[in-house]
Design brief:
The chain has about 450 residues and is of the alpha/beta class. It folds into two domains: about 15-180, Serine Threonine Protein Phosphatase 5, Tetratricopeptide repeat; about 205-445, Rossmann fold (3-Layer(aba) Sandwich). It has helices at about 20-25, 30-35, 50-55, 60-70, 85-90, 95-100, 115-125, 125-135, 140-150, 160-180, 185-190, 230-245, 260-275, 310-315, 320-325, 395-405, 415-435; strands spanning about 5, 15-20, 210-215, 250-255, 280-290, 290-295, 300, 315-320, 335-340, 370-375, 385, 390-395, 440-445, 445. The strands form four sheets. The chain has a seven-stranded mixed beta sheet, sandwiched between helices. Strands 6-7-8 form a three-stranded antiparallel beta sheet. The protein has a two-stranded antiparallel sheet with strand order 1-2.
Length: about 450
């Protein structure tokens, strides 16, 4: 450690000062002198703080600017995994935040607890910093996921406070996108294209007695949080059913956003399917969007476009009702893919205001009939994730990838591709989102097991 001897005013005696001390005290001239004499600009002391972190923490803007311009690492971490940008946002220092971002600071760094620079900016109510972070491609979905997870776990932030921050971020995102002359979707979302978007060239045998109901609800009438990519995922899934699995195009119904009201679901599940499916047929149901627990935790509901979690028993469409409807059909095989979750703990689930997350116990062999196979995104107490890097729901991505790469015969066999799906969904959820998500499979009413 390089020490510079300086005079204590009025004492006549020199005192030793390290770069850390000088930065902590905001002594810019001493900081400059120490750096010029070879002091390590990234030296870490107590708590793992660097000179730059101390300068930001103590509000010494001039010192912080000098350190950044002299090569301080803008992504170095303290013992608590705080980066200089986290310090700057937490202290409301927009000028420092701007310079850090210009120097390559990670705008989407997430602390172990779930905070990001964007969620901290919302917490301290700084629209100017929120706008700055958005201009540097801050990920709103990632941030909202962190807030939902923290509030669901009862850590660091309450549910009501988290919801206010989420609303603030969504509003800020909307204003930013509109000000930039773009549509509601962000540029990054529009330009994301993954491998599954290239539908494989296939000539499957057409299944004349096969019918599909494909539902994707991304935006809700009741201003619920968006279920990102749900609508596009539904459209893509329908294309796979037609072009890879041989479903006749006229037999595939796609319900997206405001076309997927509760009455729409009732019409197609209780009228259209019974009127069309004949003995020995095949039925496929895909749902991407929010789920919700009942108020007593003993039932799970799809949230239609016009659904309201506060009145979910009246405005939702229950899974029990869905599986009973499928069980009454004369079809030989029914397949259901649920890229949703029903705990109310975040992800693709919502819950009535003021209620705590609930564990759903109804998704079992008593509910799912013997002619039905169900693949769900997660277990009852977990949340389902969006695979932001790929621009799809995490389960949807690996189901379609499995159908494309693992199953190349144009046939549906979830028992074959389930190990592939489960392994990869769990891996991505844990590594990228610090989240446990284990897809569940029921084959003809019985839960399937899988050992890694």
């Amino acid at each position: 450690m390089l020490i510079l001897m300086v005079m204590i005013p009025g004492s006549g005696y020199p005192a030793a000062m390290s770069l850390l001390d000088a930065a902590k005290n905001g002594d810019t001239s001493t900081v400059k002198a120490l750096i010029e004499k070879g002091a390590d600009v990234n030296q870490q002391g107590q708590y793992g703080y660097t000179p730059l972190m101390w300068a930001i923490e103590r509000g010494h803007t001039g010192t912080a600017l000098l350190l950044i311009n002299r090569g301080a690492d803008v992504n170095i971490q303290s013992e608590r995994s705080w980066t200089p940008l986290i310090f700057a946002v937490n202290k409301g220092q927009s000028k420092i935040a701007q310079l850090l971002l210009d120097k390559g600071a990670d705008v989407n760094w997430m602390l172990d607890g779930g905070w990001t620079p964007l969620s901290l900016a919302a917490q301290i109510k700084r629209p100017d910093i929120i706008k700055l972070l958005l201009s540097k491609n801050a990920d709103v979905d990632l941030t909202i996921g962190g807030l939902e997870k923290m509030s669901a776990q009862g850590k660091l932030i309450g549910r009501e406070e988290a919801q206010k921050n989420i609303e603030l971020l969504l509003k800020a995102k909307e204003e930013y996108v509109q000000a930039a002359g773009k549509k509601q979707e962000t540029v990054s979302k529009k330009t994301i294209r993954s491998d599954i978007d290239n539908i494989p060239i296939a000539s499957p045998r057409q299944k004349k007695n096969a019918y599909a109901l494909v539902i994707g609800i991304e935006e809700y009438r009741e201003k619920l949080p968006k279920a990102e990519y749900a609508a596009d995922d539904a459209r893509l899934f329908a294309e796979y059913l037609i072009k890879v699995l041989g479903y006749p195009e006229e037999n595939v119904i796609v319900l997206v956003n405001d076309r997927a009201t509760k009455s729409d679901l009732e019409k197609y599940f209780h009228r259209w399917l019974p009127n069309n499916v004949t003995s020995g047929g095949e039925v496929f149901v895909y749902y991407s969007g929010h789920g919700s627990p009942g108020l007593d935790g003993n039932e799970a509901f799809i949230v239609p476009f016009d659904g309201d979690p506060a009145y979910i028993a009246d405005t939702g469409y229950s899974l029990k009702r869905l599986y009973e409807a499928l069980g009454k059909l004369p079809s030989r095989d029914n397949y259901v893919v649920m890229d949703s979750c029903f705990s109310g703990a975040g992800g693709r689930s919502v819950i009535a205001k003021g209620l705590r997350p609930l564990v759903i116990t109804t998704l079992n062999q008593q509910v799912i009939k013997a002619n039905t196979t169900v693949l769900s995104a997660s277990s009852a107490e977990q949340v389902s994730s969006t695979y932001l890097e790929k621009g799809h729901g995490l389960l949807t991505y690996y189901v379609l990838k499995g159908l494309k790469e693992v199953n190349q015969e144009g046939q549906i066999n979830f028992e074959t591709i389930y190990p592939y799906i489960k392994k990869n969904v769990e891996l991505v959820a844990r590594k990228q989102y610090n989240n446990e998500q284990s897809p569940q499979l029921w084959v003809r009413g019985k839960k399937a097991g899988f050992e890694k």
